[in-house]
Design brief:
451 residues; Rossmann fold
Length: 451
């Protein structure tokens, strides 16, 4: 069995690792640290919770500490992260690991005032952790120069692309010097990520910690077939019966997360939501209260959850099954960390059976079905020969299939994007639009609240 000393880390970093309580490197650390210390580019397939932050932070710190700054410090390592929470946690790890080194680091992200960030940049830093938007904003204002970056880390690359950051990433890459060391981490490796990696990684060492290795040994998984209307009562009953003190609930939309928090609060369950529409202050407070135990249930969307790194989560609830099977693996991986056990519940309604099939194909087995609850609904069970895929329409009664509502929505969207003709501004369509504009705007907004 490997230890950290065998990976080639310096004495000061080994001391920091020991003080953090690390004894044995995780698979991603054991595979990534040696080639990074040798100056190689690395392509890593690993998700949050595998120890990947230490896998790149420790080599980065060791490499840039080999030479001391001669005058004013400049940015020598850049770590790009998709969310504010994840960027902040990466910076916290740099702080912990660099305690015995003469290294300055700073995290910058949007949603807060830029002045404190600018002052730290003007004093000079060695390591910058950033989200794409704020980084490019401060570059445009002349506060950041990437011309001497020696080490570039792109973390959660698949989430970056899902959030529409591909153009921002390409802009950043153009500003970096050609001679540098690169690392890309992604929880999944679709074609788009492989193409992005090929565009800037050179002769990279591939480190693959697949979902099958991460998932499932210590996680008890259950699927419950239930009507959509009964999900709230089912989750309340489980939380109270099992006395859940630290659980995370995943919803598909921001609006759904907010609505569920209100419903849980009405049932006497202390819950908070975390998603992209929340202010940075609200997200930080919700996460801090969850970590300390003041809040027992955190309701999150997939994107926001990438910044949640808490070791003692006992329960994960897939309140809405994810439409991407890989997201299921990421979600349930929030529990059973640090050698502990956990349980993951999946609520499958009549519109989500195709999602369940895709999930089971990915993990390689059928999840145990719990029929013992009072809300069991046979109509949600997948049909023989059913294929994986998107929500069923038609007889399932899905709201998106209702013709009147869809037509109104599509006309409303067209009216926002195209100038109205005279005929469009008159008659029944116009009177329909004028009846309840606020309600229609809210309905359109909630439909667009995807992660």
């Amino acid at each position: 069995m490997q230890d950290f000393q065998s990976l080639g880390l310096s004495k000061k970093l080994l001391l920091a690792v020991e003080q953090e309580g690390y004894t044995t490197p995780t698979p991603v650390q054991a595979q990534a640290i040696p080639p990074l210390l040798d100056g190689r580019d690395v392509l890593g397939v690993a998700q949050t919770g595998t120890g990947k932050t230490a896998a790149f932070a420790l080599p980065v710190l060791q490499i840039i500490s080999r030479s001391k700054p001669q005058s004013k410090r400049h940015i020598r390592a850049l770590v790009l992260s998709p969310t504010r929470e994840l960027a902040a946690q990466i910076d916290e790890r740099f702080s912990a690991y660099s305690g015995h080194l003469d290294i300055r680091h700073k995290v910058i992200f949007g949603g807060v005032k830029q002045n404190p960030q600018v002052r730290a940049l003007q004093k000079g830093i060695d390591v910058l952790v950033a989200t794409p938007g704020r980084l490019l904003d401060l570059i445009g204002q002349g506060y950041i120069d990437l011309g001497r970056v020696e080490f570039f880390v792109l973390d959660e690359a698949d989430q970056m692309l899902d959030m529409g950051f591909i153009r921002d990433i390409k802009k950043v890459l153009k500003l970096l010097p050609r001679q540098r060391q690169n690392l890309l981490f992604s929880a999944t490796m679709p074609k788009s990520i492989a193409e992005l990696a090929a565009s800037f990684l050179h002769n990279a060492v591939k480190v693959d910690v697949s979902p099958e290795e991460i998932t499932v040994e210590r996680i008890a998984q259950k699927v419950m077939f239930v009507r959509k209307a009964d999900k709230r009562r089912l989750i309340v009953k489980i939380i109270k019966q099992e006395r859940v003190n630290k659980g995370i609930v995943f919803t598909r939309t921001k609006h759904g997360a907010n609505r569920l928090v209100k419903q849980l609060d009405q049932s006497g369950i202390n819950a908070a939501a975390i998603h992209g529409n929340k202010s940075q202050g609200a997200r930080t407070k919700a996460l801090a209260n969850f970590k300390t135990g003041h809040t027992s249930i955190l309701v999150a969307t997939d994107i926001a959850s990438r910044g949640i790194d808490v070791n003692d989560i006992t329960h994960v609830f897939n309140y809405d099954l994810p439409n991407e099977p890989e997201s299921y693996v990421h979600r349930i991986g929030r529990t059973a960390r640090a050698g502990k056990s956990g349980i993951a519940y999946g609520f499958c309604d009549e519109s989500e059976s195709g999602y369940l099939i895709g999930i089971q194909q990915l993990i390689g087995f059928e999840i145990d079905v719990d029929e013992s609850h009072e809300f069991h609904f046979v109509g949600a069970i997948p049909k023989p020969g059913q294929k994986p895929g998107k929500m069923k329409t038609g007889k399932s009664g899905n709201k998106p299939k209702r013709p009147n509502r869809n037509n109104n929505k599509s006309r409303s969207k067209q009216s926002q994007n195209k100038p109205k003709s005279q005929s469009q501004s008159q008659g029944n369509n116009n009177s329909n639009r004028q009846q309840s504009p606020r309600r229609r705007r809210n309905r359109n907004r909630s439909q667009g609240n995807q992660n």
